[in-house]
UniProtKB/TrEMBL annotation:
PANTHER family in the record: ER-BOUND OXYGENASE MPAB_MPAB'_RUBBER OXYGENASE CATALYTIC DOMAIN-CONTAINING PROTEIN (PTHR37539:SF1), SECRETED PROTEIN-RELATED (PTHR37539)
EC top class named in words: oxidoreductase
Oxidoreductase in keyword set: yes
Protein biosynthesis in keyword set: no
Pfam families from the UniProt entry: MPAB_Lcp_cat
Assigned EC number: 1.-.-.-
Descriptive protein name: Oxygenase MpaB family protein
Entry-linked InterPro entries: Lcp-like, MPAB/Lcp_cat_dom
Source taxon at top rank: Bacteria
Alphabetically ordered keywords of this record: Oxidoreductase
Domain ER-bound oxygenase mpaB/mpaB'/Rubber oxygenase catalytic: 126-352
Amino acid sequence: MPEELTAEPTELPEPELFARGPLRLAARLFGPGELRADRTQVARLRSFAEKADPLADRLAAVLRRDPRAGELFEQALKHGVDSLDTAPEELWEFFHEVERTPYWVDHDRIDRGARAIVRTGLIGLIPLGDMSLMGGYLASRAVKTLIGTGDLEYAAARRLAETAAWWIDVTTPGSLRLGGDGYAAALRVRLAHAHVRAAMNRRDDWDYEKWDHPVNQVQTAGTLLLFSHVFLLGMRMLGVRYTQREREDVLHLWRYVGWLLGVDEALLPADEDDSWRLLWLLAATEFIPDEDSQRLARVLLEQHAAIGRHFGPLDKVVGRAAVNLHGAVSRMLLGDANADYLGLPPARISSAAVLTFAAVNFLAETARQALPGATTVQQFLGKRSLRWYLKQVDRAFRLDRTYSRPARTAARSPAGSSAA
């Protein structure tokens, strides 16, 4: 294990430090201007911390009572609810709402956004883990559910692989149309959230005053923003060049994914400016790390260090290099104060290597934009590399594509560190 992982964390940063450093610079360069919210807007956002997803919660309760309803759920995913002869009222209600696609959904834009994501191939997995997931650990109230299930700590490698697989499913071109793999993946995760929410609500140690309602609307919207807007920021920091149209199309894709996940439409950003404002609001109210944030960050770093096990006598060297490189990527977005608090190693050489990679990638991306047909080739290669990755992780972990493991684990897990 790299020695950096055993270092004592620094003192707790101020709540708004997530919105300083690199992120503040990015906001000045790319944002719409003034991002601060007033008290009324903060209060409105916080009201959503008491709201869940009634449609999914009612259906999840039926699925727990009657396992046979799960087969009807799967049939409705693939063929639509009208293909069912009979079904529980809660299932009809859920799918009739889901299949009433909002007026703003444009599948041509969604497919363009998917192609913009897919063309970067395996590079896209870097900000997904090092910026989106690591950044999410700063939201201590949302972290309590992850700690409560125990799944991300005790089966971290598998859960991270399943998260990546889900991300690939929903970002594959054409997959979000009714009956597609991404459409099904989004709704399965929505039901998984409902099961986890029910499990957390049954616990005697859940502190609603400190942690809000489990898997609430604010937390789901925040997770969505990490996968969309923060992902785009991370990719741009790594030298990937997106046009304005590509960025807006990517955000449109995630707006629809959020709607499928049951996020209230009032919390779904319509464009890049909306995303910046919501991110800033969340940074000021939600991204407040604590000891559980450190705990999960350490687990994620340990997964990076574990890669050294495949290199025999070089295991410590490779493991330390992996931790330093991933930590350097995280620092690019989170800033030094949050990175230090989470226990990320301050490796200057690795940071220089990441910046060099970003510069080289930026030059390659500039050439791609100038060469006819280069983007099409990149999309083809990117899609192939992601398919290869899915095969490898499925072979290693036999992925649970129903995404039901967190709910099963939550039902039997002991309380997390803060709840104990």
